[in-house]
Each structure stands twice: as C-alpha cells, then as structure tokens.
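testing teh design pipeline on a random one, pls ignore if ur not involved
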C-alpha cells in the first residue's frame, strides 16, 4: 500500500485567469471562469514510488483513500498464436500484445479520447485544468501505451509489422485526469505517472482530488504546505533581577493565522504572582504579508529569598490557519540572584551591673526564611559561673520561618551575690542547625557583669624582707624572703625582672613566678629559693632583680619595698703574690687567656697551659717585668694555667668559651 501523505488546500478566492492553463491538443479548447472559494485538495504521496512492469501487474488507485478502488492500472504483455493470416499464402502468424490499461470503476471515467476500439487517456501537463469542460471516457479498458506486433511475418514488402498508439508511451511526470463518484457526487482528481517506452511498464508517484463536488482541479495541484507556528527558542534564561523575559513566536510563512499561548502549570516551578506575572497574549495573530514573528514579555519579580532556580513553561495551543511545529514549548529559567540569608546577633556585646535582672539578646535574619539556630554558652571564654552568676538554658533553639519575623529575642538571667570578685563575662555562640541561612557577624554575644561589691580594706602589707642580698658564686641554693605585717589570707607572686645582668640557666635557676601564700593567723614571712650555678669564668659580679606582683585576698603590696636585687659575687679572677711582693694576674675572656706581670720579681718565669687531659698546649718564658701575654682562639673547655718561678708552681683553672 502507498504511504499516504494527506494535505488539504484552502483556496482563499477565485484563481486568477493567469493561473488557468489551457488544455493540450488532446483536451481541446474550453473556458473556466473560476473556482469555488471553499475548494480543498486532498493529496496523497506514494512514497516510495511504485513501479509495475510484469504481465498481470495490477495497481488499484483509491483516490479518496476510502478503501474502495476507484481506478485500476493493469499491465498486459503476452503473445497471441496464429491470429494473423495472409490471403496470398493462407498462413497464420502469431502476434505480441503489450499495453497498460486504465480501468475505471463503475460510474468513474478518465479524461481522454475514444478511437473506435479503445479509449486513450490524455497525458496532461502540470497545471492543465481537470473539470467538466474536459472529455472523459468511461469504457472499461482504456489504452495508455498500445502495442501490437506480428511475429515472423513472411510477406515480402510488408510495411506494417506492428501497430503502436496511446498518449503515454515513454513519458515522465504526466497526469491522468480523473472523474469519480463519492456518495453519488462527482469529484475531479489527478494521478501522476511515468510510462516506459517498452509499452508495458508504469510508475505511480502521487495523486490528489478536489473534495468539493463538481469543483475542477489543476493537474499537479496539491495543498500548499501548512505554515508551522513555533517558539523561536526552546529555552530562555534570565536573572531574577532582569525585570522581564521576552518570548518570540515564529511562523514559517506569512499568512493569516493565529495561535494561543498557555501557561503549563504542571511543569512550571516558579510561583505566579510571587516570582512572575504572565499576561496572556492570546491569540497571537499573523497576517498575510505581515511579520513572521510576534513577541511578548513575561514580568519577572525580584525578591530577597535564596532559592533554587525556577522555571516558567509556556505551550502553544489552538492554531487557526496553521499547525504547531517544534519547539511548541518554551522554558523560561529564572536564575536566583540572592545569597542565603545571613543570621547574626543584633549587637556583639553589652555590659550590666551585677544585680537580679534579665539581659535580653536579639538574633536577626536578613530575610525571613526557614532557619534554626542554637544560642549556646562558650565554656572556654565564659568566666561567670552558671547558677551562681547567671542562669541560661543552653543551648537555646531559635526558629525562623519563611515570611515570619526577622528577629527573635532571648533572655539571660543575671544573679546578685555579695562576693568581691573581678568583672565576669558570659559569651554566647551562635550556630546554624537547620535551614538555608548562614552565619554573619557578629556571631558571638558577650555580656560583661560588672562587680558591685566593695572589697574590705587591706589587712596586711606585703614586702621583701631585704632590698638587696649578695652571695658568692657557688653551686648552692640561696633564699630570699617576703613578709607581711599582719598575717592574712592572701598571696603574692615573686617575679623575676629581666633587667638583671646574670644569665638564667647559666648563673642561676629560678621558676618565675613563684607564688607566696599567707594565711590568717599563720606566719608573717616566707622564703623562696634561687639556685646559684658556679663556673670558672672571670666575669665580674652579676645581678638578678625580683619584684612582687598579682596580690590576691585581703593584702596589699608595699610599693616602697616591692623590689629586691640578688648580687652574685664572681670568684674566678686570680692574683698571685710572692714574698718579694711581686704580683701576676691570670684571667680568661671568651676563648682567650691573658697573663700580666704587674711588678718586678718575675724574671725568667715560665708559663704553661694544659688542657683538661693534662696535655701541654702552650709554653713560654717571661723575661721582663710588666709583660703581658695573650693567647687567642683557644677551643671551648676547661684549662689549667701554670706559672713557675724559682721552682715554685702556681696553677689556676680557666673555663674558656664564656664571657
């Protein structure tokens, strides 16, 4: 069966005389004044084209596709034995017969001429008018490509070995004029064919008919393509702040037609009235010769909510004068331009006096949206004590809702006491627990409780027992002393001051600060220990400075006696005397050794320097008085400097490598 492609043509007015083409010579002359304004053509495309070329092939042409053939095309190709004879010899001869017959069903007819034996269908040209002015034949067999040949014809001088007739021999893209009945009414149509020069083949390509009874049709006339109406774009994307989104509808041909635009609620995720306003432009109207596009806008509404991108889906419906093509749906995507709402305390801090009272804190959100937060105590930063200094149910959950309040208050109860204490703080953290909000600044709220209790007057003055003490350099623990003039519950820190010249860890050790504690009715003095470290370096006297700080309880520091200096007396510089009153000095500095003769009596004295393994590393003889010898760049370590005079040796340990 042919693949049917049906098209309907609506003719908007009479066809102009220029459009009417004359019939071929086979049709004869006729005159047509016009066609009905309601004429409609139904066209069927035989796709793919169908070819028939074998004896007995039959194609049944159902012009109006109602299931009942209106015409048949029949291929004939066979040999007749002994149908020809001659009077001269009396012999008989066979004949070859070929044809394509057009066979109309009862009541139907084909445009053509009648030749006595057969009717011969016209091979019409495109544009030839098929109507009542044309002659039609209703005989059963109508010959399109008649051919009859005599086989083995022996007569000398014969000039007619075959007969050939018909209008369709070897033609392409010619048209049959058809007249047929639909429910007792006469209709006109056409069929386009090729016929081979071999007289026994044809190809059917397409056909059409006029749906209006008695209305002529042009050969080859088909319904003009129905214009398609589509959205120009399948998608449009705009920012929430764009204000409008433009939608354009296009038509493939400029004719009179219209189409409706509908909002597809099922696919639209944006909220009409809140996210957008759609003013229905239906119907969008196109006119013949006018523009092929129509545009309209959809209003986009700005808001402050952080939300997913949303869509508006529009569809085309109810076309008039055209058909809906693709894309028939447009999706407008609204890109959200809002970040998540910020949430924070209204203020970072407040200060109140200690009293039985309530402090109100406030949490704000930029835009009322679904969000939950916890207000909770920060234990690391809070110095006030729960249930003693304040009461608060931590964590406290605060819940914001979309479209609701943008601030929520909470209370912290402050408790009065009679304790003398420092100012204390309550630090509350803010944490998002649910919803689309994010923390903003400030996300900590600090309440400072100012103490309102007056401390009692001091009951004791604390001071160092001595402003200065001195000790010889040695590996020994020494003590300092702190005293209070009246035993009370209090404490004070002994702190080492960095202004001293002694080096902690080399000349002494002390754990600073050291806390001295007194008790009511107890001792009025206490000691603290400093460990001195002996060395062999000649370095002079050095000092360590101490001071009193951080008194607590009912005592006060005596500012006139709050400092003490410990002096470490150096014992490493050596002077040597003889009975003659001669003097010599041996001392070290960094990695050098200096020997000085300070008076007469050292002539021809020897000097030796030994390392700590007893190896002599230097030897010299001192010839003159008031002579100095300097030995440089000696490696770090302990050495023995030796002076020998008159057979008597004087030795001194020297530690090199320390100032």
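output:
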């Amino acid at each position: 069966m042919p693949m049917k492609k049906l098209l309907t043509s609506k003719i908007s007015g009479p066809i102009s005389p220029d459009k009417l083409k004359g019939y071929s010579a086979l049709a004869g002359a006729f005159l047509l004044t016009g066609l009905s304004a309601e004429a409609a053509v139904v066209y069927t495309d035989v796709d793919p084209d169908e070819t028939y070329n074998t004896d007995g092939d039959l194609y049944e042409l159902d012009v109006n596709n109602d299931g009942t053939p209106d015409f048949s095309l029949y291929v004939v190709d066979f040999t007749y034995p002994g149908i020809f004879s001659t009077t001269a010899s009396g012999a008989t001869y066979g004949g070859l017969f070929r044809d394509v017959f057009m066979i109309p069903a009862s009541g139907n007819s084909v445009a053509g001429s009648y030749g006595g034996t057969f009717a011969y269908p016209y091979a019409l040209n495109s544009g030839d008018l098929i109507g009542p002015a044309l002659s039609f034949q209703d005989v059963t067999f109508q010959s399109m490509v008649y051919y009859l040949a005599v086989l083995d014809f022996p007569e000398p001088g014969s000039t007619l070995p075959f007969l050939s007739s018909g209008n369709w021999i070897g033609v392409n893209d010619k048209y049959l004029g058809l007249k047929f009945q639909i429910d007792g009414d006469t209709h006109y149509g056409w069929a386009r064919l090729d016929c081979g020069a071999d007289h026994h083949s044809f190809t059917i390509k397409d056909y059409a008919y006029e749906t209006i009874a008695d209305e002529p049709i042009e050969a080859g006339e088909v319904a003009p393509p129905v214009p398609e109406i589509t959205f120009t774009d399948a998608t449009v994307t705009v920012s929430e702040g764009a204000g409008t989104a433009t939608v354009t509808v296009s038509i493939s041909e400029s004719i009179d037609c219209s189409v409706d635009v509908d909002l597809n609620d099922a696919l639209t995720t944006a909220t009409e009235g809140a996210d957008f306003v759609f003013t229905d432009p239906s119907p969008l109207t196109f006119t013949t010769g006018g523009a092929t596009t129509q545009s309209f806008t959809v209003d986009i509404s700005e808001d402050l909510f952080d939300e997913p991108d949303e869509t508006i889906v529009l569809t085309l419906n109810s076309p008039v004068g055209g058909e809906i093509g693709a894309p028939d749906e447009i999706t407008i995507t609204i890109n959200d331009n809002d970040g998540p709402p910020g949430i924070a305390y209204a203020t970072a801090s407040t200060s109140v006096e200690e009293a039985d009272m309530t402090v109100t804190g406030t949490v704000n959100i930029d835009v009322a949206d679904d969000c939950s937060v916890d207000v909770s105590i920060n234990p690391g930063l809070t110095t006030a004590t729960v249930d003693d200094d304040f009461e608060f149910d931590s964590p406290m959950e605060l819940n914001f809702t979309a479209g609701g309040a943008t601030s929520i208050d909470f209370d912290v109860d402050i408790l009065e006491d009679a304790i003398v204490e420092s100012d204390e703080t309550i630090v509350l953290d803010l944490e998002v627990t649910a919803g689309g909000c994010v923390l903003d600044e400030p996300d900590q709220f600090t309440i400072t409780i100012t103490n309102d209790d007056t401390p009692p007057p001091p009951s004791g003055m604390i001071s160092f027992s001595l402003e200065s003490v001195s000790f010889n350099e040695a590996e020994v623990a020494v003590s300092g002393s702190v005293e209070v003039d009246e035993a009370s519950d209090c404490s004070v820190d002994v702190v080492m001051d960095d202004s001293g010249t002694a080096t902690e860890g080399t000349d002494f050790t002390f754990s600073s600060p050291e806390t001295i504690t007194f008790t009511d009715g107890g001792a009025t003095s206490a000691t603290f220990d400093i460990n001195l470290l002996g060395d062999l370096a000649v370095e002079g006297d050095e000092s360590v400075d101490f001071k009193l700080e951080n008194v607590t309880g009912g005592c006060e520091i005596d500012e006139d006696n709050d400092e003490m200096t410990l002096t470490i007396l150096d014992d490493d510089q050596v002077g040597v005397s003889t009975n003659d009153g001669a003097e010599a000095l041996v001392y070290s500095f960094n990695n050098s050794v200096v020997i000085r003769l300070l008076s007469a009596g050292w002539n021809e004295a020897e000097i030796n320097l030994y390392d700590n393994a007893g190896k002599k590393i230097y030897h010299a003889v001192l010839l003159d008085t008031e002579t100095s010898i300097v030995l440089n760049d000696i490696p770090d370590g302990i050495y023995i400097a030796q002076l020998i005079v008159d057979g008597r040796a004087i030795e001194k340990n020297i530690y090199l490598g320390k100032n």
